[in-house]
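Dear Dr. L.,

I hope this message finds you well. Following up on our conversation about the binding site, I have prepared a predicted three-dimensional model of the protein together with uridine-5'-diphosphate. For your records, I am including the exact sequence and ligand specification that went into the calculation, followed by the structure tokens. Please feel free to forward this to your student if that is useful.
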Amino acid sequence: METVCDKKKLKVIFLPFLSTSHIIPIVDIARLFAMHDDVDVTIITNSTNRDSCRGRSIRIHTVKFPASQVGLPDGVETFNVSTPPDMISKIGKGLSLLQGEIEQLFQDLKADCIVTDMFYPWTADAAANLGIPRLMFLGGSYLSHSAQHSLKKYAPHHLEMTRLQVPDWLREPNGYTYSKKKSYGSLFDTFYDLEGTYQEHYKTVTGTKTWSLGPVSLWVNQDASDKAGRGYAKEEGWLKWLKSKPEKSVLYVSFGSMSKFPSSQLVEIAQALEESGHSFMWVVKNRDEGDDRFLEEFEKRVKASNKGYLIWGWAPQLLILENSAIGGLVTHCGWNTIMEGVTAGLPMATWPLFAEQFFNEKPVVDVLKIGVAVGAKEWRPWNDFGKEVVKKEDIGKAIALLMGSGEESAEMRRKAVVLATAAKTAIQVGGSSHTNMLGLIQELKSLRFEGNCLP
Ligand code: UDP
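The resulting structure of the complex is given below.
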């Protein structure tokens, strides 16, 4: 018998955390849900944005960030590469002040389910109070979250990582948990052929439900306008430059949305790139005066030799990675970038810096064997330069292997191409992520039936 609930759309409310690389995948997941006619999607955010997916609109509900109450100037309400350290805790405080309003919104918007970032553990209780499921978006790989689980539970451990590579929250207990157990389940941007073993392992050791839905970016960003919708400025110089380069000849170098380096490290990177003999495109986020002068000189030189192209600030990464001139990337192992690199079928030189990036390096280098490590040894907080400076010789060795013509390099490239095909298959009808997504929506609908709906 058809019920009222069968006809009613499933109302799913998304709450992203306010830093670029957490917003990107959770909004992409919201778009995935919005592709389904029977799902009504709302995103709660504190900065005005609009969003849509393949012609279907997504509601955006804006809450006002209480900047003045926490002593912040208007407009400072997200975490990014230039957030001054003294503002970090104030932004955190501002976000916690919004808790009551957001809880009320879940109720007023009549959510059937909420999908919230792992950094909002309180939403698990909010969902429980409303009698609805909370799905937690966990950024990073299954391997990284399984490893973190094991480290917390069984220290000392078997994974080969040095103490210095382990994040501070695992070195000393800090009482913070992702409220895994309280949530209905978790969502990951990964796919079965990439991490199936770890997905199974994660399920077993945590005893929780989980769905891999990736690569979400590939799934929802299928044409140039989707890709360009990621806040890219209209600057076509990079494209012209890439078009002038032979296939697979350019190295893309980027360290995500939050990383910055001390001058000493920038010098080592610049020299390694220049001495590598390969063409490169380097995304530079530093805007310190001293670095600017040195980098501008460097930029003039590599422009003159036509060997390098610098992008200052925000790069159109999705568009760059799919360009046929790109042959490999140097990455800080942010999980979004790894997924985007895998999707593009590119081998990687891995240079983890902070968050769970040292864990993310492992599947790329040791398990999937589509990458080579530059040999970074020390974890640091995201807003700190850290003490380690990776030498140009080590960077150069990794680049040589990544872009080289020997058998080992060719094998990495082959494996990367095979994975890219698997990524595309995962999101097609019958593919693992596609099947997971359909199953998830069905499950959420049946939960609603068990809850408030009468036949
Ligand atoms: N990104 C981009 N342009 C940039 C820097 C980053 O488009 O100049 C995007 C990138 O494609 C990825 C995200 O921002 O989707 C960065 O996420 P990731 O997890 O790789 O690193 P994080 O920013 O968390 O360190």
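In brief: Residues 407-426 form the longest helix (20 residues).

With kind regards,
A. P.
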